[in-house]
Amino acid sequence: MQSFIIGWKRLVSLTSKTLPFLSLDYYIHFYVLILLGSSILLSSYKIYHENQAIQLPLVHWLNNPSLYSNDPFAATLRYYSSMLWMLVALLANFIPLEPLLLILFLIERLLLLYAAGYLAQTFAPKSKLAVIGAMALFALAPDSILGSGTLVESYFEQTGLFIPFFLLAAASFYSRHSIAWAIWLSLGFNLNSMYGVYSLTYFSALFCIDSTYWRGWKRWGGALVLFFFLASPAILVTFSAFSKNAVNSNLWRLASKVRFAHHLYPLTWSLIDFTKFGILVGVLLGYLYYSRDLFNRLFKHSLVWTGMSLLWLLYAFAAAYITKSPSMLVMHPARATDLWYCIAAISLISVSAARFERNGTRTTFLGVAVIFSILVSLLTNIIPPLNSIRFYINLAVPGIAIAAIIFWRLLRSYVFSKKNFQYLALLLTFWVLLVGMGDFSRRFKIDKRFLSAMIERPNSEIEQIANWASKNTPVDAVFLVDPNSESSQHRGWEHFRTLAKRSVFVTWKDGSAILWDRTYVEAWMNRLQALGFDLSQLQKPLNETEFLENLNLAYRNLRDDDIKKLKQEFPLHYWVVPLNQPSLFPVVFQSRHYKVLTLQSI
Fold it and tell me: Which of 513, 532, 527, 522 is nearest to 252 (CA)?
């Protein structure tokens, strides 16, 4: 019996180290549930959205390799270095895909809140307000500043899921739980190897400058071996993808400038964004320097984190304008700052909350409010117009702070007496709930339907046509659809490949594949050229907006003779056009605004 008790205690100890959020106080879970609901009300949930146009065809192909046989884009998916979609494909054999993605999204958002709270607790162990504050900020769906990266997404995908694993790895690193660090980071690396590499550089820098880590190099060396073993699937696929060099580097760079300027080319980013980044750097280093009497180690580490983020930005400039190397550009170097935003935000919240709970003065309360307001302003993209609910988020916290200063004695006597700060945590949670309800109300006013206000999906007509295609066309059929869904009356054509489980001739979104299979750039550009838009023959460089305008014009000008020539060079079976499009090809299906033309007789 005694041996059983000892074994049980060891199991509980190991579990608490590996699953650290289980050690949070029980009442924290109540706040988590409210913040989870608030967060989903605020962001809504999106299905068949953005990068899922890339990822979900991989799921279908893994479960049915006979799909997409005439689709060069689909041929690149074997080099897509995320193990997540293999797991999704496996689970999709037992759970329908749409419910599965919703369940995984809820798990991702829940894990994110717990991870943010636990890292805050690691930075400020005695501060409950820090835990709630970090969770509240991430419930507001913060976004990156430079490089159009990912912190919190409104749909399920691997980068958004990487962030909580990174936060848990950081908490384990600071708690010196080396095995837990290796497990969490390897799980994240298998989700997104690019962000995994970013993480390794940050942790390596901290390890090198902090003697308390490298003195225990044997323990951390063993953990690193475990990490590489667990992360080996993603490492192998990533190396395989890197071996796919573009035959024409100039063409690749030309394509990347119109397809990924927002990710890869720093001079295309606005001065406002660089200013916001600079402000956040200044606030982080300034406030932690001011608080170094209580958080000296965290201040020193903040210098390392910030230095590494700046090095990644220098890498971005060098890759884009000096070496101009595709193999360097595909690293999306500026997006490494995404991890810095997470650490910077949670550090600031933790330090300011801990100082307030320690002193409880009017000044320290104002500091908490100002710090949180700055983070909300910089990381949640709150910019006028004044009629946006997000604008009023920016005013709420400083407004509360001003009211608190005016009525400080009353608050001091009845709210913060005996240093019971749960009232403030409850107020913050309730405010986030109101923000979420405000965003939900705005969406609900559009068509007065709860479901459409909570869940966003492609236009019903696109889904209707896709359902017809999946049931009434051969599995090797190729469809020509609007290559740029932004130009269409109804958005979502980039998801036709997923919805119909049929090949698509080409879309603007397909250009994403040149990142993991650089040889694909020629196939992508050839198909755009076949539609009448030859990017390599342009007299001047185009930005993304000009590129899409030219692509829209080329597609709208297609006529029957153009399609006949197109079919002589490429396999093509159906053409989806607006209902008023003139054509002599037979109509095999039509919806309210579109018709499907068969090209079988050509």
Answer: 522
